[in-house]
Amino acid sequence: MSQSKIVEVAAAVLQRPDGSFLLAQRPVDKIWAGYWEFPGGKVEPGETPRDALLRELREELGITVQTAYPWLTHVFTYPHATVRLNFFRVTAWGGEPHPHEGQQFAWQYPGRASVEPVLPANAPILRALELPDLYAISNAAELGVEPFLARLKTRLDAGLRLVQLREKDLSRNELRELALRVATLTHACGAKLLLNGDVALAQEVGAAGVQLTSTQLAELKERPAIDWCAASCHNAEELRRAESLGCDFALLSPVLPTRSHPGAQHLGWAGFAVIVAGTSIPVYALGGLVEDDMRVAWQHGAHGIALLRQAWVS
Questions:
Q1: How far apart are CA 172 and CA 178, in angstroms?
Q2: Keywords of this protein's UniProt record, alphabetized (predicted)?
Q3: 89-134 tens-digit pLDDT
Q4: pLDDT tens, 2-22?
Q5: Residue 16: count of CB within 10 angstroms of its CB
Q6: Which of 181, 183, 177, 209 is nearest to 196 (CA)?
Q7: What are the backbone dihedrals phi and psi of residue 278, each rounded to the nearest 5 degrees, phi first?
Q8: Would you say residue 213 lies in a domain?
Q9: Are 231 and 211 in contact (CB under 8 A)?
């Protein structure tokens, strides 16, 4: 097969309400037999990736897809071919998956996949699945430090698992003190904490990562040496830059009008969808949103939503 030809593939992340997802083992009569992968298959001539997804899951698993959201696109070169994997998150289907091709199935949990070996192309997808749907951005400046910490504790207890500490008006010492307190709370419940723009402080307080500003994104030559690295983006060029730098995920804003920038230009959901189409990293929608916007965000290709003031509404 010509190495210049890209094989289009539709792939499904079947997700149950408890967060588990389905992996399938490749049958003995196929290349890479015994490796685990996300269900799916080649896009046939005349098909869209969504059409192929519906057909493949019907043929391969015996299920009828009811709800599928566009998600990530990952290009990977194997010795025999280069594939473009068009991933969808499938959250509702009719029927119970069963092996039409004699393959084994296994339900796995984010961050705790126990089957191996997994196809090499799927490693970044497994990492992306560790990210929750909601990303909360701190607002101690308006709430006050103690009220903010109290609301953070409440949200963490209720299941919040991804937090960005972004407090531009604090001195370095004040920010460090707050970061240590926030890190203590997030560590206690297994949540990820990212610090806005300060890699050194993130490393010092034991945060999981850093949220790069758009200025940092433009200036950096390589990805910071930290576990999780995200980027703040406002257009397609910045999002492509975040991908090339090796960021784990991105924020894209503003989607809707915001209180902090009334009258400013915003992307709208249609504009957001155009920019994120084909992206290889998860993207959170930010700007003028509420938690009830989660489903519409998924429909337009977002991994989830990021909230600032709305994250701390009591």
A1: 10
A2: DNA damage, DNA repair, DNA replication, Hydrolase, Magnesium, Membrane, Metal-binding, Mutator protein, Transmembrane, Transmembrane helix
A3: 999 999 999 887 778 999 999 999 999 999 999 999 999 999 999 9
A4: 446 899 999 999 999 999 999
A5: 11
A6: 209
A7: 85, 5
A8: yes
A9: yes
Q: Do 22 and 58 have their domain in common?
A: yes
With contact defined as beta carbons under 8 Å apart, do 250 and 239 qualify? yes
In a domain, 60, yes or no: yes
Residue 121 shares a structural domain with residue 39 = yes
84: left (phi over 0), alpha (psi -120 to 50) or beta: beta
Residues 82, 35, single domain; the answer is yes
**Token code pair at residue 247:** 């960021």
